[in-house]
Structures are given as structure tokens and as C-alpha cells.
């Protein structure tokens, strides 16, 4: 089952016109697409105007996903632009994936936002599937309650490969540690060859605008240029505890926070299974259980201002950390 546009995403739009609840109704489902078949493919659309506001008092996950929901057994979203969607009270994700066999490929997930309290991860929330070769950028969390995240959350069987997460903004004043562009929370999750750059938290309470890591593997990723007004960490905040975490071949450099020695790397608790291999950070990876072949150095990129994050010939780490 293939639903494909004739003229591509730039000219073919799937839109939800109604964006507010009618009078007297406190819940509104305005999702654009639901995929729930392994052979279901949606190819080449702009998906916009998806909106969900509701109390979700019973916690039913069928409410999650304001624009696209991919359910078990799966489905594929390819060559699409998911833009201008919003989530409200207690909701998760502009795109919500519950299927282990879902695919999101070559998509732009941009300019999605939160509009209600406790809204989390305005771009994408995945409990399974593969997100690959996609751009997750310019999303915003601006609620005033305890909303988390400014980009994507991966848990369960979800994995991400060759993606960029840039210029996402956290304006929430709820005091969450997880204000990250990418949050990873499963030992089954692998993130590889991704760029996490220039994301920011604009509140004192929103920490870690880059990568919030409680479990999983992060391989050959570059995390740079992220910033927070908080004193602690905008690069990687690791809160793994007894969970297994592996960081391999990564560049974590040039992030900004109130305390420079905490800007790139911070441990939120005492880990027991944290391994860092052939990676680079200006102040190292203090507290890791196993550290092998790492450099304490600052990365020098070819042209970061114009999006070229290949290590320059003048930089340390060229033999240690493959650039994303």
C-alpha cells in the first residue's frame, strides 16, 4: 500500500485545517496520518497543521502523535516534511512511533511546537523503528509546566542513524533536566553518525540542550555548539546509573554553559556500566567506568559557521574520532 505524491513534498500538502477545540470540548484529535501495516508507505508529502489538545487523563497512548502515528505492526514515512504541528497537555511527539518495525527516512521534521502544560518532545517520540537520514531542526518547547525535550526521544527498540538535530529551542520554565535535542533511554537503542549542534535552552531551569543519555550506544556523533543558561552542561548529560552506556568515536566540544568545565560533559549520578572509547572532549569524560583511547582536547572544524563539522587539518582527534 503506497500513498505517494505526484509532485513531491514541496507541492503536495496534507493539512489539518481546524487548530482549536470547539466550545465545550476539552479534547481534540486532529492527527493527519495513522500507519499500521508493514506494507504501508507514505512518500513525498508536506504534513502540517496537526494538533492535539486534551487532558489525556486516562493516559491512553492512542492520543500521542499530533501529525503522524506509526503503530504496530509498522509502516514507512519517507521523503516527507513534517512541519508546523503542535502538541498540548500531557502529549508526546509530532511524530509518535510505537512499532518496532517502523521507518522514517529522508524527512524534514521542523518548526513543530508545544502549546500546553506537560508537553514533551515536539518533534518525535519513538518506542521503536529506525529514523534515518532525516533533519530534526527548529522545533520549540515553550510551555510553562513540566514539559521535556526540544527534539526527539528514543526508547525501547528505536534507533537513529545519519540525522541532524540543530537549532531546536527550549523555552519551558518547568525545571526539567531533559531539555535536550535528543534524549536516549534504552540499552537497545543505537545512535550513529548524527550531528547534534546549535540547540539551546533559554531558561535557567532547562539543562542539557544537546544529548540527554540514560542508556544506549552513541557512535561516531558530533555534539557541538549547544548552549544553556544553566550552569551545568549543554553537550552530553549522562544519567545512566546501572544502565549500560557506550560512547564511541564521538566529538563533544564547543558547547556552552555557565561552568565551562561542565559544558561538554556532565554525570548526573554515579554510573556502573559507562564506557567511552576513542572520543574527544576538552575536559575529558570524568567518571566513566572505562575510558580507552580518548583525547582531552578542543575540536577545530573546517567551517562550523557554515555547517561543515569535519575536523580540520589543524585539529586534534582526526585519527581518533571520525567526524559525522
Helix content: under 10%
**Overall residue-averaged pLDDT value:** 87
Which stretches of 5+ consecutive residues score pLDDT under 50?
A: none
General shape = globular
Q: Tally of extended strands?
A: 39
Largest β-sheet summary: 18 strands, parallel
Structural class: mainly beta
- Beta content comes to 35-45%
Radius of gyration: 19 Å
Alpha plus pi helix count:
0
The termini sit apart by 35 Å
Please, could you describe this protein's structure?
By secondary structure, the chain is an all-beta fold. The chain has strands spanning 2-4, 13-15, 28-30, 33-35, 41-43, 46-48, 51-53, 68-70, 75-78, 81-83, 86-87, 95-97, 102-105, 108-110, 113-114, 124-126, 130-132, 135-137, 140-141, 152-154, 159-161, 164-166, 169-170, 182-192, 195-197, 200-201, 211-219, 222-224, 227-228, 236-238, 245-248, 251-252, 265-267, 274-277, 280-281, 290-292, 295-296, 301-303, 308-311. The strands form six sheets. The protein has an 18-stranded parallel beta sheet that branches. Strand 38 (301-303) and strand 39 (308-311) form a beta hairpin. The chain contains no helices and 39 strands.
Give structural attributes.
324 residues; mainly beta; 18-stranded parallel sheet; nine-stranded parallel sheet; 0% helix; globular
Amino acid at each position: 500500500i503506497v500513498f505517494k505524491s505526484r509532485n513531491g513534498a514541496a507541492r503536495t500538502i496534507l493539512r489539518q485545517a481546524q487548530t482549536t477545540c470547539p466550545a465545550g470540548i476539552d479534547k481534540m484529535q486532529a492527527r493527519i496520518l495513522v500507519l499500521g501495516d508493514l506494507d504501508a508507505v507514505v512518500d513525498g508529502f508536506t504534513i502540517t497543521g496537526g494538533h492535539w489538545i486534551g487532558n489525556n487523563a486516562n493516559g491512553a497512548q492512542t492520543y500521542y502523535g499530533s501529525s503522524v502515528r506509526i503503530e504496530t505492526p509498522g509502516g514507512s514515512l519517507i521523503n516527507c516534511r513534517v512541519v508546523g504541528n503542535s502538541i498540548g497537555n500531557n502529549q508526546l511527539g509530532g511524530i509518535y512511533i510505537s512499532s518496532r518495525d517502523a521507518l522514517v527516512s529522508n524527512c524534514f521534521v521542523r518548526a513543530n511546537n508545544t502549546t500546553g502544560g506537560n508537553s514533551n518532545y515536539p518533534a518525535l517520540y519513538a518506542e521503536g523503528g529506525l529514523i534515518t537520514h532525516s533533519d530534526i531542526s527548529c522545533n520549540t518547547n515553550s510551555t510553562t509546566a513540566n514539559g521535556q525535550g526540544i527534539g526527539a526521544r528514543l526508547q525501547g527498540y528505536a534507533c537513529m542513524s545519519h540525522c541532524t538535530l540543530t537549532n531546536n529551542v527550549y523555552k519551558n520554565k518547568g525545571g526539567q533536566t531533559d531539555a535536550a535535542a535528543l534524549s536516549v533511554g534504552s540499552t537497545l537503542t543505537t545512535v550513529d553518525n548524527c550531528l547534534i549542534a546549535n540547540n539551546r535552552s533559554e531558561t535557567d531551569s532547562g539543562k542539557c540542550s544537546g544529548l540527554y543519555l540514560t542508556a544506549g550506544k552513541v557512535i561516531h556523533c558530533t555534539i557541538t555548539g549547544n548552549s544553556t543558561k544553566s550552569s551545568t552542561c549543554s553537550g552530553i548529560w549522562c544519567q545512566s546509573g546501572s544502565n549500560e552506556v557506550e560512547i564511541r568515536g564521538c566529538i563533544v566540544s564547543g558547547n556552552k554553559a555557565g561552568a565551562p568545565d561542565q559544558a561538554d560533559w556532565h554525570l548526573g549520578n554515579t554510573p556502573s556500566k559507562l564506557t567511552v572509547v576513542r572520543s574527544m572532549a576538552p575536559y575529558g569524560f570524568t567518571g566513566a567506568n572505562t575510558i580507552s583511547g580518548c583525547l582531552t582536547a578542543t575540536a577545530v572544524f573546517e567551517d562550523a559557521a557554515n555547517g561543515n563539522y569535519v575536523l580540520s587539518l589543524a585539529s586534534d582527534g582526526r585519527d581518533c574520532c571520525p567526524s559525522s
